[in-house]
Design brief:
Blueprint lengths: L1 E2 L1 H10 L4 E5 L3 H13 L4 E6 H6 L5 H13 L4 E8 L2 H4 L9 E4 L6 H17 L3 E6 L22 H11 L3 E4 L16 H10 L4 E3 L7 H9 L2 E6 L1 H17 L6 H23 L6
Parallel strand pairs: 1-4, 2-3, 2-9, 3-4, 4-5, 5-6, 6-7, 7-8, 8-9
The structure holds glyceraldehyde-3-phosphate and zinc ion.
The site of glyceraldehyde-3-phosphate has 16 residues, from strand 4, strand 9 and helix 10.
GO biological process, one term: carbohydrate metabolic process
Protein name: Fructose-bisphosphate aldolase class II
InterPro entries: Aldolase_TIM, Class_II_FBP_aldolase, FBA_II
Length: 286
């Protein structure tokens, strides 16, 4: 059934676990995330990023409607989340498209501008009954920007500043920069565990980890132990899908029916989803 991110994050926090949130791009992503979550009997979040909407010719509804239907028919609770939103026009489509939560991303702006923009987004979101996440510090690697080094001073989230940001903006959750970078295709990132400890001590809102594909299993598990309650994963599914399709087409150069290689891609994503949820420690489905 369809539920909300706020509900799943609260349940994760109560069980000292983290809810896995997967970025969906195609219908195969939607089906794989739901099937993978069902296979380990855990709730899950389907998230659509502004970049994914851009890929879908700027239209949110076709993928959103498919995700809502998949959530309603799923055997586990499934929430819909709009991810990395910078456009106000897109933000305002969230409630009607079936999203119970949004991540508003003004992290690239100077602190005062990030705070002002986030505060306005929070006021609007709360009036709509939406749960809203924002980002402070900067988790690099979006839009192939690549250059931002996750280890550069200033890119990390400062605990005292984060405390003020949460209090002054009213956000429901905070995405923190603690060592990950978006779009990593190797699992070689390391977390700043001391910083995570200081952040959990300083803040009383749920903390969200982005760029989680770059972390090895032990670091993913340590993030949850350290207090992260929402873990965003995108690239790991693309790696699984693209790798399986590439292998299938190499093995079957005569293949024509798109269902043949999409099945291989979807199956690989389903396995990846189940494995990541197992690593995080599944949140009980009820
Ligand atoms: O918001 C989305 C996540 O941060 C995904 O990051 O593609 O590096 O796993 P990733
Ligand atoms: Zn992200």
């Amino acid at each position: 059934p369809l539920t909300t991110t706020g509900e799943l994050v609260a349940r994760a926090a109560a069980h000292r676990s983290a809810v896995a949130s997967f970025n969906i791009i195609t219908l195969e992503h939607v089906e794989a995330v739901v099937a993978g979550a069902e296979s380990v009997n855990a709730p899950v979040v389907l998230q659509v990023s502004e970049n994914a909407v851009r890929f879908r010719h700027g239209r949110l509804l076709p993928l959103a409607r498919a995700a809502v239907a998949a959530a309603e028919q799923a055997g586990v609770p499934v929430a819909l989340h709009l991810d990395h939103v910078r456009s106000d026009a897109l933000l305002r489509q969230a409630p009607d498209a079936g999203f119970g939560s949004v991540m508003y991303d003004a992290a690239r702006l100077p602190y005062a501008d990030n705070l002002a923009a986030t505060r306005a987004a929070v006021d609007w979101a709360h009036a709509q009954g939406l749960w809203i996440e924002a980002e402070l510090g900067e988790i690099g690697g979006k839009d192939g920007q690549g250059a931002l080094d996750a280890h550069a001073p200033g890119a990390r989230t400062d605990p005292a500043q984060a405390r003020a940001f949460v209090a002054d903006s009213g956000v429901d959750a905070l995405a923190v920069a603690i060592g990950t970078t978006h779009a990593m295709t190797t699992r070689t990132a390391t977390l700043d565990h001391g910083l995570l400890k200081r952040l959990t001590a300083a803040l009383d809102v749920p903390l969200v980890l982005h760029g989680s594909s770059g972390l090895p299993d032990d670091e993913l598990a340590a993030a949850v132990t350290g207090g992260i309650t929402k873990v965003n994963v995108g690239t790991a599914l693309n790696l699984a899908m693209t790798g399986a399709i590439r292998q299938f087409l190499t093995d079957h150069p005569e293949a024509v029916d798109s269902r043949s290689y999409l099945t291989a891609g979807r199956d690989a994503m389903t396995r990846a989803v189940a494995e990541i949820i197992r690593t995080l420690g599944p949140v009980p489905a009820a």
